[in-house]
Amino acid sequence: MSRMQGLLLLVFAKYFHLPFLRGVQTETTRTGLGGYWGNKGGVSARMSVFGHTICFLNCHLPAHMENSDQRMEDFESILQQQQFEGQAATGVLDHDVVFWFGDLNFRIDDLEMQVVKSAIDNNKYSMLWEKDQLNMAKDSETVLEGFQEGPLKFSPTYKFDVGTNTYDTSGKKRKPAWTDRILWRLRATAPAGAALNAGKRGSISGLTSGTKVTQHCYRSHMEYIVSDHKPVSSIFTLQFPYKVDVPLVTLIVEDEWNSIADATAIFKVAPNYSRSSWDWIGLYKVGFKHHKDYVGYVWAKQEEADFQRQEHQVTFTEEELPKGSGDFILGYYSNNMSTIVGVTEPFQVIIPGQNLLLTSLFSLFLSLSVLPAPQQATLL
């Protein structure tokens, strides 16, 4: 997660991908009021995914029709300021794949209000694309080279009267525009960007190394009326050859824990993994959202005598187990890498003794609830 005033970026991943998401870093850049205010700017999250570098950049750029040049200047400033640690992909555009999105605030030039609304009413969006400031900037701004966007086949997403699907009827009467956008960029590896240019107008783009981005849909959501903007969404498939396909830590656990004695796990570490004495293994409910959402955890301690061992075992005590049954996952958290580097498949925890306490408390509650009113008052 990366957050700044007015900007929030959340990245979710399926649990079985977690061991292959490495080098996660975030950055924020304020551009409002000369860099002092966070209502405008950019937030980013970068990571290595199966050995390929990916960066997500969410921006809120300056508003108003006449500020197209200022939007480009702010975008370039964000790119220059956002630098990441490590030898690979130190800047946003150094990544193999970049997704750039947000309230970019680009407007439709030249055309009068009635012309724009008539084009919208008649679904003649193509005549508006030609006057869209972002589309025009792609032909002149070097920093936008390689950025692609799916066709804008939905109505402009700004500006609406709040609570309606009616374009601005206030005294300002803002001209409709596609302010909310989602673009992507693949780092060129072919000579002169040949692979990028070949698919520039399509919904599929790829690198000569085999990386491919496919956009399946790009749409707005008119049903949301709490803002003067309409949100946009897009679904992509990202395909690339594996560079990393073996987790740094392999966790082995039984399919079920039926007693406290079953609450053990075995883990194996890869030869190239550097352990820390602060590494731990967390027990997570299926559907967890953060590495700190564990039900319980145990330290993945390493004694001096363990250095030559291939397998290590940990045991969860009764206090570290859930108080009810359900489906759970074990995850190995690396302190050095600040991420989960190994997970199990989901398994069931069904420990009768743990459920007995809840059953007894529930029975007690039922017993108290049927007592006559005076006795209830006395008990309280």
TrEMBL record:
Family membership noted in the UniProt record: Belongs to the inositol 1,4,5-trisphosphate 5-phosphatase type II family.
SMART domains with a match to the protein in the record: IPPc
Molecular function (Gene Ontology), one example: phosphatidylinositol-4,5-bisphosphate 5-phosphatase activity
Keyword Membrane carried by entry: no
Stated name of the protein: Inositol polyphosphate-5-phosphatase Jb
Residues covered by the Inositol polyphosphate-related phosphatase domain: 1-245
Species for this entry: Amphiprion percula (Orange clownfish)
GO biological process, alphabetically ordered: phosphatidylinositol dephosphorylation
GO CC annotation: cytoplasm; plasma membrane; ruffle
